[in-house]
Fold this protein.
Amino acid sequence: MTDTRIDPPPVADEREMLTSWLDWHRETLAVKCAGLTEEQLRLRSAPPSTLSLLGLVRHMADVERSWFRRRLNGEDLDFIYFNEDDPDGEFDNVGTASAEEAFATWRAEVDGARAAAAACPDLDTLAKREREGVRYSLRWILVHMIEEYARHNGHADILRERIDGVTGE
């Protein structure tokens, strides 16, 4: 695997530290998927789970959109890969899904998330849209996203090892 990640700085202000760690985790997902075929990216973890690397990329595209564009920015956007009738669509519907499209969509949502965060004057900026009656701060969203990627990158590490034996940070 080619490692394209940039290590977060050992000393930085809070905003730079949080965004650097989030970017590092974003790129960790890309590293875990690097060099695999579309079929390998679709491989499931273990029945009955529908977890796959491609599903994780699709899931994170929706998570990026949800927290940064839908909630923080207040944009009126649908989810990309799932809906009320198909709540696990990002994971379940990878059989014929295009990896190229999924990665392009994920990268576009990451770019949109970065722009939304950069537009906030500070980490205490509250999201424009509530989730279950709560308006979260940009600080909370960044920490949550680091947690979300860290958890799923652990899944990605196991999936990658299952596919071709490659492990790593």
About this structure: The chain is about 55% helix and 0% strand. The helical segments are 14-33, 38-42, 53-72, 89-92, 99-118, 138-164. The CA atoms of residues 61 and 106 lie 4 Å apart. The domain at 14-164 is CATH 1.20.120.450 (Four Helix Bundle (Hemerythrin (Met), subunit A)).
